[in-house]
Design brief:
With about 210 residues, the chain is of the alpha/beta class. The protein is built from 6 helices and 13 strands. The protein has one domain: Rossmann fold (3-Layer(aba) Sandwich), CATH 3.40.50.2020. The protein is globular and about 65 Å long.
Length: about 210
């Protein structure tokens, strides 16, 4: 899986353990997920292009570097994607933000779209698509197709956890989109949940059932 990267950092692994623990409170879950997403954003943006710029330090003029081109865009798959959006914005606060509203039909497990709001010039930007879980892969696959329909040519997908089935489905549909995840778990169960996983990410972010 050349386009799948497991971000195997000790701090990230430690924080994922906190997320998995059923005893972790809603507030703590949000806090730790935000910390993880900042760590992941650091790795996912490692190859952003730079260009030279001349600046004045308090002591002299120098040639330095800053990010080249248009600012990136982070697109959250609602609702759970917003749980890791904020941590990424902590690192890149100037990034543009888009939202794709999808929910999973409980019978077919297929995604149903109910909302789409993207920057007008998204086709000119690097897009980071975020959703905490890559389970069946249906929602992420549908969201990536919608972004491509909007003209997006350069995209990365970021999730906290992935199942082998979700990775297989997503990479087959989008072999040009790199996947970054904190861990690849054992399997999906008959209800489409990642095992051992961490439960329903949206419910744990927002204290719902």
């Amino acid at each position: 899986m050349p386009l799948v990267t497991v971000l195997d950092h000790p701090l990230l692994r430690h924080k994922l353990t906190l997320l998995r623990d059923r005893g972790t409170t809603t507030g703590k879950f949000r806090q730790v997920a935000r910390e993880i997403s900042l760590l992941m954003a650091y790795e996912v943006t490692r190859d952003l292009p730079l260009e030279p710029v001349e600046i004045e330090t308090p002591l002299e003029t120098m040639r330095a570097e800053h990010l080249a081109g248009k600012k990136l865009c982070i697109v959250s798959i609602l609702r759970a994607g917003n749980g890791i959006l904020d941590g990424m914005l902590d690192l890149v606060p100037s990034a543009r933000v888009g939202h794709i509203g999808l929910y999973r039909d409980p019978v077919t497990l297929q995604p149903v779209e109910y909302y789409l709001k993207l920057p007008n010039d998204i086709a000119e930007r690097l897009v980071i698509l975020v959703d905490p879980m890559l389970a069946t892969g249906h929602s992420a696959t549908a969201a990536a197709f919608r972004l491509k329909q909007a003209g997006v040519a350069t995209m990365k997908f970021v999730c906290l956890l992935a199942a082998p089935e979700g990775i297989a489905g997503f990479t087959q549909a989008h072999p040009d989109v790199p996947v970054f995840t904190g861990a690849i778990d054992r399997e999906l169960d008959s209800h489409g949940y990642i095992r051992p996983g961490l439960g329903d990410a949206g419910d744990r972010f927002y204290g719902t059932r």
